[in-house]
Design a protein that fits this description.
Strand order of the largest sheet: 5-7-6
Structural class: alpha+beta
Order of helices and strands: EHEHEEEHEE
Shape: globular
Number of helices: 3
Strand content: 15-25%
């Protein structure tokens, strides 16, 4: 691994300081578990090998592991989502977490054919507050 960068760490909403300062001083909102990491591997082969970790459980949450893509075209699904295999979810509670949707669609209760079929979930969040916008892609 050449580098690891943490992003989207949820900070407390009442903090009146830049996000970086809030994280460094421990003003993190632990009630919201979503965060992202960008890992740069030494070789493309190592990066490809890491993709098998997609949807593995770490700390009680399913990890989403994708290859990084170039800058998106500005659409929510421009990165790694295959439109023919993805669905849009709307009217979600703003506190909904990725893990809520993984459990909903993966436990087989809705449809036995869906059990373990989920390969990625993305709850769309506000870039400043990290609070959900009420929509997601599965």
């Amino acid at each position: 691994v050449d580098s690891v960068r943490l992003r989207s760490i949820p900070v407390k909403l009442d903090v009146a300081m830049p996000r970086r300062a809030a994280v460094l001083t421990g003003k993190v909102d632990t009630s919201r578990a979503t965060a992202h990491a960008y890992i740069v591997f030494s070789t493309p082969e190592e990066a490809k090998a890491a993709l098998v970790q997609n949807m593995q459980v770490l700390g009680g949450l399913h990890m989403r592991v994708d290859s990084a893509t170039g800058p998106s075209s500005g659409t929510a699904s421009a990165g790694s989502y295959n439109k023919s295999r993805s669905i849009f979810i709307g009217n979600l509670h703003f506190a909904a977490q990725d893990e809520d949707l993984v459990r909903l669609f993966s436990d087989g209760a809705l449809d036995p054919q869906l059990q373990d079929a989920v390969t990625a979930v993305r709850v769309v969040r506000d870039s400043k507050t990290n609070i959900g916008k009420g929509i997601a892609f599965v």
